[in-house]
Amino acid sequence: MSSAAGALNVVGKRVPRVDAKERVTGHAIYPADFSLPSMLHGRIKRSPHAHARLIRVDVSKALALKGVRAAVTGEDFLDLPIDAKAQVGEGGADMWYIARMNMAKDKVLWIGHPVAAVAADDPHIAEAALALIEVEYEVLTPVMTLDEAMRPDAPVLHDHCFTKGIEPRPQRPSNIGARTLLARGDVQQGFAEADVVVERRVTIDTVHQGYIEPNAALAQVEPSGLTRVWASTQGAFTLEIQLAVILGKPQSLLKVIPLEIGGGFGGKIYAHIEPAAVKLAEKAGRPVKIVLSREEVMLGTGPSPAAQIEVKVGAKRDGRLTAIQGRFLFDAGAFPGVGTTLQMQACANLYQCPHLKLEGFDVCTNKPRAEAYRGPGGTQTAFAVEQAMDELAERLNLDPLEFRDRNASVTGSPMVVGTPFPTIGLTTILDRVREHPCWRDPLPAGRFPRGRGLALGYWRGTSMTSACHIALTGDGRVMATIGAVDIAGTRTSMAQVVAEEFGIDLADVYVQTGDTKSVGFTQLSAGSRVTRTMAAAVHEACQDAIGQLKKRAAEQLQCSPEEIAYAEREFRSMRAGGASISLQSLARATMLDGAIVGRGVSTRLPLGVEIGAHVCDVEVDPHTGQVTVLRYTAFQDVGRAVNPPSVEGQIQGSVAQGLGWALTEYFDYAADGWLRNASLLDYRIPTALDLPAIDCVIIETPVPDVPYGLRGVGEVPIVPVGAAIANAIARATGRRQSAMPMTPERVLRSLRGSEFGKI
Amino acid sequence: MRRLHQISVNGETVEVVSETRDTLLDLLRDRLGLTGTKEGCGNGNCGACTVLLDGEPVNSCLILAVELTDQAVVTIEGLAKPPALHPLQQAIIDWGGTQCGFCTPGVVMSASVLLGRKGHLSEEEIRRALAGNLCRCTGYDKIVKAVASVLAAVPGEGS
Amino acid sequence: MIEFEYSVPSDLDEAIALLSSPGARVLAGGTDLVVQMRERRREVRHVIDVKRLSELNRLEQEADGSIRLGAAMSATALGRHHALREFPAIVQAAQMIGSYQIQNRATLGGNICNAAPSADSVPPLICHGAQAEIAGPAGRRRIALESLFVGPGRTCLSPQEILVSIKLPAPPARSAGSYLRFTPRREMDIAVAGAGAWLHLDDRGNVIDGRVALAAVGPTPLRAARAETCMRGERLTAALVEEAAKLAVHDARPISDTRGSAEYRLELTRTLTRRALLNCGRALGLMESQ
């Protein structure tokens, strides 16, 4: 297996993306761009109430409108057993919830919950039809905050929700989906031993992944029942599984074809529109395309959960941590299932600390179901803990970098759950920060107070399983079909891997993303897993193909396969005076002897944890509270960068998202559950003018026993951003921020205190 | 209600049947099949629908199809004659300024008019010109560098 | 959106007559109206496109130095017109209306008649003494621009009246204006609060006339009358500016909404008024850079 040793020719080189031309010319096809003959346009009708019983849905008037061809409601969908599950996401999913999320039965649980859908000849007719659907609700009291949801007398969203992780099992249902506890040692003792203790309570608002492409899908159902769905999805196979369960269809009658996806970041894993599109297509006997409006994206998909976190950290005078304690409440939205384990581990794993107690809760409220967003939950927990650590360093009069160094986890250190860390490079990262101008250069003075902040980030992506196959073309070029949707430039990086493995030029490689019936089962493009696991699968498939080619070469060169070596595009007989044959010649000569097909599968690759450290300089306008980010540098250990510009791009994009999360983005809910800022006017994604250049420092500590030593890349760079900004603001103003986003108003409030608004 | 238009798109006068309620974006995508221009937000806040109207970038989602008479519309498909690429398109490829690609056509159209501006453009001015185009994948860094590289290469106008 | 009829009148009388049809609405740049139609916030049954009306699409310069801005001129066109070099605050404000894509379509008339309390073009126009020139079935009238607004989203125009142009008097010597607004992002946002200021000084640095107009802190754009009164006849100093800024807060009547709380808007009113007045002072050669 290739790893750090040995020069690489293609992997690690800065190459342009192989699919860039399609993007810059507008030729890349996303589902909204894709049409079929006699296609209909679908639209979804949504609940205007945050919590209500669904009494009656009457689509008859809509169906009577000229040009409307089909309508569906909850009655058209199966009543799944309450314990129906499927392997989706990073863990099993409760399909009873996912099915009802896609179409309400009996109850609506958030403003935006689908209650019906129609398909019509023209998008304008479909829109007009929505107004003709009559729905009767019995309005219930909504539960809109974590505090409301956790009260013993709170209205309960799900009668069958009994909090998991509590002994004894509760007698009554509640809105708390699960409680998780991670502990070691005795935190009471730890705090007693501490010389300084810091406590911090923070809240983080709901934010959205903010992908620029609204969710879109096109469904077609043949008379035979064969169903094709062209989707914008992070996982064709996982979408197919969801469809199979929700629709009660065998997977032999389903095919999901992933088209280009205009951003997902975790929000395009679960089905939000595809089941309705299929049902409409089935009823109408014509293909149906559903494209969400931006307002529907905000109301009808899965944002990142709000959170309320209390942390307490203690250390001795020399800076060594003695205890970390945290209570983490996550707002799961309408259906429980937000993980807390990984998120709590993430905020503490980089610190060696004898006593820990981390308690997490996932709590239901009448908002859209919370879904993943790049290192899900990690940004929230880091906002709490990294601020507390920074405050501890300040109180101890220690440089924040030295404080981290003193407590840093290294290879072999126990993680929160006790497992020893595999090879990691945190101290290498800290060393690089220490010598970098972004840390060493004094912060120049400006018109307003300025400060520099440091924060660390940890994320552990997943491995799961990835498949691919390699085939030779008749002229000795190589094609690869990979099972993972490309969200991070995978086609390019895998083309680099193939070129590296075969020793050929990038231009002689063709990589395509397969659909669910043309490639082996591959789990979703998320969890920082695609590049590294697909590289492992591609590596295996290449070696498999090369092995088959060696047999063919042996026949041609009249020796045994064991006597064949392959290098620099030549199969060479190692016998004395041995001849050779080029890859191209071999392919042409033996084309009619049968296809060469190499198979590769990667499953449960060893952990490649992601670690990052971010440094930022900010200026705070003390009269408006506006924060300007002057400089941002992200340090990250990526194992090895297959395609450095892609790696930088992932880091820069994540940082930009983190800055929006830190400063301007949040869901503004009214008390009745209405989302007041469901548009890109008032949901403020940073523009080019809001962001500085984002410098990346790539560190490479390869993961042993993994092809190319790759780590996950795409999630950790969002994790420390909010905390880095908060720490910089604290250094600039002397005030800690207890709410994220740190909007100008909130920052000014923290500066003006009780004088705020009094002139 | 359907109506027949004659409009100028990408240098050619075409006849197209549109719906009164169509925006220019709907007309381009749904009636003319020019799907390079995208819809991201529907209310002029993301710039994914940017086209040139008489040489100026506009949000096509905010223009009613019926408003068009003889104005020249240029979409991403008409920016360069295939297989050639506009220098901005090539620069975005070279600098890695596109990831998911959804914002890219709009970005290219907005940036394309900068080549006609006289004098040196600072990074801030480039960012201001792109402020109406939201990108969620790149953090804008490589896009800005790509645009700057093209402006620097323009003879007599760069610094 | 609902089905609508579309007309392109070739003269004002035709436009006025067409506005009598039910659900008729003037369309200029469309950057507000098309959004409202799509979101069904306005049910428009008849779109009256005024972009071909010559009087609305030209800029006239009078002999006395006053200018007349056609209501359907785009923000970009205004920004490029040499006549507006005398009015940098107005150009700046027009450029705040949105991105370049928006500026290429959005019009002064649209920004005004949409009558959002946060409309960015309005405070600097008010400060420069703008008058709204209106045409209707009963003929023409001209009113002070600030009188046009009666409530959020509402003007005093009758259903068949059209804003034709904005008349601006020639700026006197030793006068300068500035408009500042606060938005969480650097671009693309609606003002949380905005303050326009304008000062006319004598040759000794005393204020002959001072105007302050506020955006997004009341149901309509507001004149900060108390702030204006305190400056008249006084020497322009940092202390005077501070006093005016505090008084402007008392004239503000903000509400709390998704963009900001009332208290925050009061804070911003003070800061923006102070900074806008200091900008005017600096443009007139007084006041150190702060």
Descriptive tags:
heterotrimer; A: 759 residues; alpha+beta; Aldehyde Oxidoreductase, domain 4; Aldehyde Oxidoreductase, domain 3; 3 domains; seven-stranded mixed beta sheet; six-stranded mixed beta sheet; 20 helices; globular; disordered N terminus; C: 290 residues; Uridine Diphospho-n-acetylenolpyruvylglucosamine Reductase, domain 3; Enolase-like, domain 1; four-stranded antiparallel beta sheet; 10 helices; 24% strand
SSE blueprint:
The complex is a heterotrimer of chains A (759), B (159) and C (290).
Chain A lengths: L19 H5 L15 E7 L5 E7 L1 H5 L3 E6 L11 E3 L4 E3 H8 L4 E2 L5 E7 L2 H8 L3 E6 L6 H5 L25 E9 L2 H7 L2 E9 L11 E6 L5 E5 L4 H12 L6 E5 L15 H11 L3 E4 L2 H7 L6 E9 L5 E13 L7 H8 L6 E10 L13 H18 L4 H8 L18 H10 L1 H4 L9 E10 L5 E8 L5 E5 L7 H13 L6 E5 L16 H28 L6 E4 L2 E4 L6 E3 H7 L7 E7 L6 E11 L6 E11 L6 H20 L30 E6 L21 H13 L5 E2 L3 H9 L7
Parallel strand pairs in A: 1-14, 10-29, 12-13, 16-17, 20-21, 27-28
Antiparallel strand pairs in A: 1-7, 2-6, 2-8, 3-7, 4-5, 9-17, 10-15, 11-12, 11-14, 15-16, 18-26, 19-20, 19-25, 22-23, 23-24, 26-27
Helix pairs in contact in A: 10-11, 11-19, 15-16, 18-19
Chain B lengths: L1 E8 L2 E8 L4 H8 L18 E4 L2 E4 L12 E3 L12 H9 L8 H9 L10 H7 L11 H13 L6
Parallel strand pairs in B: 1-5
Antiparallel strand pairs in B: 1-2, 3-4, 3-5
Helix pairs in contact in B: 2-5
Chain C lengths: L4 E3 L4 H7 L5 E4 L5 H6 L7 E4 L9 E3 L5 E4 L4 H6 L7 H9 L3 H4 L4 H6 L8 H6 L3 E6 L2 E6 L4 E3 L2 E2 L6 E7 L6 E8 L10 E9 L5 E9 L6 E2 L1 H7 L6 H14 L10 H22 L7
Helix pairs in contact in C: 8-9, 9-10
Overview of the molecule:
The complex is a heterotrimer of chains A (759), B (159) and C (290). Chain A has 759 residues and is α+β, with helices and mostly antiparallel strands. Chain A folds into 3 domains: 20-27 and 464-603, Aldehyde Oxidoreductase, domain 4 (2-Layer Sandwich); 34-140 and 213-262 and 268-300, Aldehyde Oxidoreductase, domain 3 (Alpha-Beta Complex); 307-458 and 606-755, Aldehyde Oxidoreductase, domain 4, CATH 3.30.365.10. In chain A, the strands form 7 sheets. Chain A has a 7-stranded mixed β-sheet. In chain A, strands 9-17-16-15-10-29 form a 6-stranded mixed β-sheet, with helices on both faces. A 4-stranded mixed β-sheet of chain A has the order 18-26-27-28. In chain A, helix 10 (341-348) runs parallel beside helix 11 and helix 15 (490-502) packs parallel to helix 16 (530-557). Chain A is globular, with a radius of gyration of 27 Å. The termini of chain A are far apart. The relative contact order of chain A is 0.13. Mean pLDDT of chain A is 96; it is low at 1-5. In chain B, 29% of the residues lie in helices and 17% in strands. Chain B has helices spanning 24-31, 87-95, 104-112, 123-129, 141-153, and strands at 2-9, 12-19, 50-53, 56-59, 72-74. In chain B, helix 2 crosses helix 5 (141-153). The longest helix of chain B is centred in the C-terminal third of the chain and has 13 residues, at 141-153. Chain C folds into 2 domains: 5-168, Uridine Diphospho-n-acetylenolpyruvylglucosamine Reductase, domain 3 (2-Layer Sandwich), CATH 3.30.465.10; 175-283, 2-Layer Sandwich (Enolase-like, domain 1). The chains are: A alpha+beta (759), B alpha+beta (159), C alpha+beta (290). Chains A and B meet through helix 1 and helix 18 of A and helix 1, helix 2, helix 3, helix 4 and helix 5 of B.
